[in-house]
Amino acid sequence: MTDYASTRFAQAYPAPLTGQFRTLPEDFIVDEQMEIALSGTGEHLWLQVRKTGANTDWVAGQLARCAGIPAKEVGYAGLKDRHAITTQWFSLQLPGMADPDFSSLPPEIEILQQQRHDKKLRRGALAANRFILTLRECSGDFVEAQTICQQIAQHGIPNYYGAQRFGHNFGNLKKAASWFKGESKPKQRNQRSLYLSAARSWIFNHILSERVRQGNWNQRLPGDVFTFSDGNSWFADDASPALEQRLAVQDIHPTGALWGRGELATQAQTGELEAEQAALFPIFCAGLEKQGLKQERRALRIKVGEIGFEVVDNSTLRLAFELPPGAYATVLLDQLGTFLVPPLTRGG
């Protein structure tokens, strides 16, 4: 059996700190940044919700209960961490129905505002996530850590999938392997999606880790395929001098394979690297292809921008930054050091 826990993905920065993260829910604050103008009319009621110590699916279920509708009629842009204070939007489809009474919602859920709109909130439909992280019991070189934050603003960070993608104790990966080997099958549709995503993300992380190890994760490599910062399209290397400048200012980024059917989009040195890394996981590759997934691409780099760095006291730091959808705050922390999550807050 593969020992997933022993895997250490390469980091792009020295990571000089140690400490604790998510000691309290208020140590992890996340606010969705939306750029959707709500119409004020329509059969969808949009709610901005602040949740504390609760996961997104549970909140969606509570909203559906109050509205008397199936949970599938509740939309949200993405899953947010349970052990945090998060502000995010939900939509409820209420055709011909009045706004529900939410007075019976549990105290973990607070509705900040609500407005009608003519469309459902879809997955990924947000501009960014804004994070405020408090790190406790910190030791190490704070000055070097602040310098790394400045370097991250200039060069970005590797766009790894976070550990939560793979499940508690890598359970999603283990179940994906069991499924692909014919030993078991997912019982629910959402489990199928989780296992496929975990296997695909594991291959991607290894491709990215090898490029970080080689020092070319944010540089041009022969045969590369690039994407724009919005991640909505990609294009092959055209060997133009302007491409290097666009890479330097983080207007475009190299991409890595999200495994599936079909040929790799990359060629030459990049194509060889991706094929070699994917070949380390033949069960995952074959399973993803059998389930009908097609080759896609994901940026190898995240553009972070300025990071607020506050020394609260001699063992406490506070960071503030913004990440695009699909990026993980914990991946940024990995560039700064090793931060343990106390046992009482682990899971969820």
Automatic annotation (TrEMBL):
Enzyme class: isomerase
Reactions catalysed according to its record: uridine(13) in tRNA = pseudouridine(13) in tRNA
BP terms from Gene Ontology: tRNA pseudouridine synthesis
Keyword Transcription in record: no
All copies of domain TRUD, residue ranges: 156-302
Catalytic site positions: 81 (nucleophile)
Highest taxon of the lineage: Bacteria
This protein's UniProt keywords: Isomerase, tRNA processing
Record's GO cellular component terms: cytosol
EC number annotated for this UniProt entry: 5.4.99.27
GO MF assignments: RNA binding; tRNA pseudouridine(13) synthase activity
Pfam families: TruD
Family membership noted in the UniProt record: Belongs to the pseudouridine synthase TruD family.
Function of the molecule: Responsible for synthesis of pseudouridine from uracil-13 in transfer RNAs.
PANTHER family (alphabetical): TRNA PSEUDOURIDINE SYNTHASE D
Protein name: tRNA pseudouridine synthase D
Source species of the chain: Thiothrix nivea (strain ATCC 35100 / DSM 5205 / JP2)
Gene from which this protein is expressed: truD
